[in-house]
Every structure is written in C-alpha cells, then in structure tokens.
Amino acid sequence: MTITIALSKGRIFEETLPLLNAAGITALEDPESSRKLILTTNRADVRLIIVRASDVPTYVQYGAADIGVAGKDVLDEHGGTGLYQPLDLNIARCRMMVAVRDDFDYESAVRQGARLRVATKYVQTARAHFAAKGVHVDLIKLYGSMELAPLVGLSDAIVDLVSSGNTLKANHLKAVEHIADISSRLVVNQAALKLKHDAIQPMLDAFALAIKK
Ligand code: PRT
Ligand code: MG
C-alpha cells in the first residue's frame, strides 16, 4: 500500500521537509532541480507528488493523493469538501490583507459607501470579507501579481497575502485591513484515513509532535 503526499514547490516544500524528516520520510530528489513530478523517498511505500499550490486540495479530495499540505488561503477558496484537516502545521505563515495605493483614502471611500473595484486571486475570501462589512465591491479575478492592479487603474484595492510587506512597499501600496492570519494545514483524504489508517496515523502523530509552536 502506497501513501501519496501532495506538495507544492517553493516555500511549502521547503518548510514541510523538516516535518517529513521527523516522520522518518526523506525525499530522494529535489523538485527545484528535478523536472520529475513524482518523487521517491527513503520509504518504498511513500511518494511525493509536486502540484500547483492551489491544486493540492483537489488531488487530495479525489484521493489521487492521500495527504497534502495547503495554505489556509487555498483551502478557504477550495471549500474543503472531502478533506479532513487535522493539523495546523504553522508553516508558510502570512496575512490576508486588503491593500490600496499609498495615496488612496480607503477609510473615506468606505465611509461614503463608494462601490470599490477589488482585484484578487481570492474571490471567495474577498466576497465574504466585504459582504460582512457591508461594503459593495466589484470583484476582478486575477491569477497573480495583484499588486499591479491598483497601479494601472484596474482596481481601487487588492486582496492578497502579505508576509514581509516588501512587495507592497516596493509598489507604493499600503495594507488597510487585516482579513485573516494564514498558515499551511495538513489535509487528508477522508476515505484514505480509514482504509490506510495504520500507515497514515503514525505520520499524523509524528507531524503533530514536530510542529513549531
Ligand atoms: O506560484 P503559484 O501560482 O504556483 O502558486 P502560489 O503563489 O499560491 O504558491 P506559493 O508557493 O507562492 O505559495 C504557497 C503558499 O504559501 C500560499 O498559498 C500561502 O499559504 C503561503 N504564503 C506565505 C505565501 C506568502 N507567504 C507570500 N508572501 N504565498 C504568497 N506570498 C506572496 C504574496 O501573494 C505577495 O505577492 O508574496 C508576496 C508578498 O510577500 P512580501 O514578503 O513581499 O510581503
Ligand atoms: Mg507564488
């Protein structure tokens, strides 16, 4: 019986490696240098698959992967159907924020009840946030580089992730609202958890012990 773990390249892969090591799993290839999408590990019964960050919940939901690691941002957009989310791994931490141009008076636009154009990759999250505030918005779906949108007049505001704040600063933007603290979660296919319980549960226990508080 094989256990398949879905990860994305970059920060999630890097920050998940120590947790895998704690569970006795070592990757035998590096996805940054290898072009392979299925990576072997030191354990014959465990393999890693490399997918886009936003595709991790889909692979796990359909059982193509048994386990995955995905940001709360991605999980909120996906909806989480069919996924068991036992652990906050406390990695790849950042904040979901509303940001605008330095020279845009967001507070008074909101006070005046202006209709705001908001560009984001996180349409569900943004819709829920502004609906709860009673702010009317036109949402514009983007797939990346949201920071550009207010600079060229595509939108008044963006909803995006911020970690150091350097990207906002470099583009003369400012964060005006905090929507949520984000970290990555372990997700497990619910059927796999039952059918492969003897293999999966010890991994979950090892991850839980290795999580940094
Ligand atoms: O790149 P791709 O389109 O394949 O997908 P992705 O961008 O979703 O993947 P990736 O690997 O970049 O991010 C994976 C996960 O890392 C996200 O789903 C988040 O949960 C988490 N994470 C943590 C972040 C950041 N920090 C982060 N800073 N994801 C993205 N960013 C981006 C942000 O969107 C902004 O453009 O970094 C920029 C801001 O960073 P600072 O440091 O300049 O503030
Ligand atoms: Mg990215």
Taking the alpha carbons of the first and last residues, their distance comes to: 32 Å
| Overall shape | elongated
SSE ordering? EHEEHEHEEHEHEEHEEHH
Q: Architecture of the largest domain, CATH level 2? A: 3-Layer(aba) Sandwich
Q: What small ligands are held by the chains?
A: phosphoribosyl ATP, magnesium ion
**Could you give the count of β-strands?**
11
The tally of domains stands at: 2
Weakly predicted, low-confidence segments: none
The radius of gyration over CA amounts to 19 Å
CATH class of the largest domain: Alpha Beta
**Helical residue percent band:** 25-40%
Strand sequence of the main sheet, in spatial order? 2-3-1-4-11-5
Structural class: alpha/beta
Strand content of the residues, in percent?
25-35%
* CATH superfamily grouping of the largest domain: Periplasmic binding protein-like II
Number of helices: 8
Mean pLDDT: 97
Structure description:
The chain has 2 domains: 3-92 and 183-212, D-Maltodextrin-Binding Protein, domain 2 (3-Layer(aba) Sandwich); 94-181, Periplasmic binding protein-like II (D-Maltodextrin-Binding Protein, domain 2, 3-Layer(aba) Sandwich), CATH 3.40.190.10. Helices cover 31% and strands 30% of the residues. It has helices at 11-22, 56-61, 72-78, 106-111, 123-133, 166-170, 190-195, 197-210, and strands at residues 3-7, 38-40, 46-50, 67-71, 83-88, 94-101, 116-120, 137-141, 157-162, 173-182, 184-189. The strands form 2 sheets. It has a 6-stranded mixed sheet with strand order 2-3-1-4-11-5. Strands 8-7-9-6-10 form a 5-stranded mixed sheet. Strand 7 (116-120), helix 5 and strand 8 form a beta-alpha-beta unit. It is elongated, with a radius of gyration of 19 Å. The structure holds phosphoribosyl ATP (PRT) and magnesium ion (MG). Phosphoribosyl ATP (PRT) is lined by residues 8, 10-12, 52-54, 71, 73-74, 92, 94, 144, 160-167, 182, 184.
